[in-house]
Write a structure and sequence with these properties.
Elements: E1 2-7, E2 10-15, E3 19-24, E4 28-32, E5 38-42, E6 48-57, H1 63-70, E7 78-81, H2 83-87, H3 93-96, E8 107-110, E9 113-114, E10 120-121, E11 124-127, E12 133-141, E13 148-156, E14 160-166, E15 172-179, E16 186-192, E17 200-206, E18 209-218, E19 232-247, E20 254-264
Antiparallel strand pairs: 1-2, 1-7, 3-6, 4-5, 6-20, 7-19, 8-11, 9-10, 11-18, 12-17, 13-16, 13-18, 14-15, 14-17, 19-20
């Protein structure tokens, strides 16, 4: 399995990490008054940090990663796609929770709603388009030939979900649509394979859909169980360590261990 780092259209595969610890920054800033009362201030953003390690790497495997940390690919930031993202949910946590989406007049914030499993989900999205389709998320990285699945809980009349694939200029290369049955809350998924030249995808819903919840995009050939967003649209890489474990003969070279830090930025 691979993880990916890079710009749209130039995603560089990295071997899956041996260990990956993810931590989000605190959401509250704490202070204590002279009377001993605790006060907290809400922090608008809670960026994540990935502490990644490779226990064993062969000669040359870390070359691509080293190029990012030395500036060969530029200063960044880059897209960071850990395995949990492309196998679970490419959206960021705030996108998956419908706290962020592409600004459209047809889209507005909705309140809590019962999902298809009967549990409460904290947020939903109201959709009011009378015709056509509305993109909810844009600029999602794809790799030509790797299937992509777009899923969400929807209500409406014969609800439809749509996904389009785009080249580096933004031109549409392909479009796929799936239709649900009836009008009650249901999960509708559509799968498509990006054609040659595709670097991004847009996902959304068509007229007839009135409400959206639990959005999910994955690099899989079918829908996968719902998960929170794991994608990162802007990150920098720092702190690469390169530890020699064993020096083999000239046919193999060195066996090394590596650690690095991925920091989400805005």
């Amino acid at each position: 399995m691979m993880e990916y780092l890079g710009e749209l259209g130039r995603l560089v595969p990295l071997r899956c990490a041996s260990a990956e610890r993810v931590q989000a920054a605190g959401r509250y800033r704490e202070s204590v008054t002279v009377e001993g009362r605790r006060r907290v201030q809400v922090v608008p953003a809670s960026p994540r940090t990935w502490d990644v390690s490779w226990d064993l790497a062969y000669a040359g495997e870390a070359a691509a990663l080293s190029a990012f940390t030395t500036g060969a690919w530029g200063p960044g930031p880059w897209h960071w796609l850990p395995l949990q993202a492309h196998r679970g949910n490419l959206l960021t946590p705030r996108e998956a929770d419908l706290m962020e989406w592409t600004t459209r007049p047809e889209l507005s914030a909705g309140g809590p709603v019962r999902d298809v499993d009967g549990a409460w989900t904290a947020r939903s999205l109201l959709h009011s388009a009378a015709s056509g389709w509305t993109s909810i998320f844009v600029g999602l990285p794809v790799i030509a030939g790797t299937p992509v699945t777009w899923s969400c809980d929807v209500t409406g009349s014969s609800p439809k979900t749509t996904m389009t694939f785009h080249d580096v200029s933004g031109a549409v290369l392909a479009e796929v649509t799936a239709t649900g049955a009836g009008s009650g809350m249901q999960r509708v998924s559509v799968t498509g394979t990006p054609p040659s030249g595709a670097v991004t995808a847009r996902v959304g819903v068509r007229s007839g859909v009135s409400r959206v919840a639990r959005p999910q995009v994955s690099w899989t050939p079918q829908a996968v169980p719902w998960s929170r967003g794991h994608g990162c649209r802007a990150a920098v890489v720092d702190g690469l360590t390169d530890d020699l474990l064993y020096m083999a003969d000239e046919r193999v070279g060195a066996y090394t261990a590596h650690g690095f830090t991925v920091m989400e930025v805005s």
